[in-house]
Each structure stands twice: as C-alpha cells, then as structure tokens.
Amino acid sequence: MSHKRSGILLLVSGPSGSGKSTLCRRLTEEGEAVYSTSCTTRQPREGEQDGVDYFFQTRESFKKLVEEDKFIEYAEVHGNNYGTLISEVVEHLEKGTDVVLDIDVQGASLVRECQSEIIQQALVDVFVMPPSEEELYKRLSGRGTDAQEIIDLRMKNSVEEMQYWNKYTSLIYSGTHEEDYAKFKSLLIAERLKVSRLIQA
What we know:
Elements: E1 3-5, E2 9-13, H1 20-29, E3 34-35, E4 38-40, E5 54-56, H2 59-67, E6 71-77, E7 80-85, H3 86-94, E8 99-102, H4 105-113, H5 117-122, E9 123-129, H6 133-141, H7 148-161, E10 170-173, H8 177-192, E11 198-200
Parallel strand pairs: 2-8, 2-9, 3-8, 4-5, 9-10
Antiparallel strand pairs: 1-11, 4-7, 6-7
Helix pairs in contact: 1-8, 6-7
EC number: 2.7.4.8
Subcellular location: Cytoplasm
GO cellular component, one term: cytosol
C-alpha cells in the first residue's frame, strides 16, 4: 500500500526584524518548500524581480483582484497593499508541495477564516517572536536602508503585532539564526509525519 502526502501551508508571522523572512527564504532555498509569491502595490526594491519576489501591482489592478475574490488574504501594511493569490497556494498543495506564507497578523487572521477545505486542512501557523524590544530596534536600525521615520513606523507596528502571538498554534522565540532554523524546520518535519496528511494512492 502506498500513500502520497498533501501539501502543508506553513503560515509564518512576526514583526519586521524577527527574522521570519530569512527563515522562509532558507527553507525554500534548501528545497523544503516553495515560497508563495504575493501581490503588492509597493515599489520594487533594488534587485527585486516581478513574479519572483512579488507580483507588483498598481492600486487599480490590485483592487480588481480583490473584487474578483482572487485572494486568500489581503491587507494594507505600511501604506501599501499586499495579497496572497488563492491559485498560487492551492496549485502547490494539490501536488503535495509544501508552501510558505510570510504574512502579517491581519493576513493570518483572514487565512484562518478562508472557507477552502484544502487550505484549512493544510494550515500550520507559527509566530516568530524577537527576544526583546531592544534587540528588535537594533535589528531594524542596523539594516542601514531605511530613514529614521520608516524605522520608527516599523518599530511601532512591530510592537503592536507582537501582541498577537497567542493567536498562533506554534511560537518560536528568536535566538541565533541556526537555532531558529532548527526549530522552524523541525516543526515542518513533524507536520509531514502526521497520518492525517496522508492520502492513500
């Protein structure tokens, strides 16, 4: 008797500077999962590619996608719109491919409310918590790419976002990158072993 496994939707949240995006990126670079490419209305940063880092949208095209119910979730963050396409996620899950979603707490709430059966069966949510507000500020200001007002805005939003950690099934307190990644990958491996994820061939 052989079985195949349905895909896991690993939903990852945490404030800017928590290291969540680095964890997601490493997981995909190692071939453990695919990164769900989101839509956004923000301008591309240097080196970012349309269709790879994001699907860059105008506000008008983004609004049209919302009206057509193309998103699992969408939200406004730092004055820009972000959204996750249903088609992007479901296509991978049906093939048994694990998908990583790097989204904020607003988006996570909408994903939990999604009526799609395959999304609900696949969903595993985890919050990455920075070790302290002091460390968080150091990480945000240490990037050297943002103006002070942007850093202050991200810090304010990050502190607010940290209040939602208890809405998640799993919590990772950030330490070193290697420690964080070991926990992150272990969570995914444990989910893969669940009998409930097996489909009899």
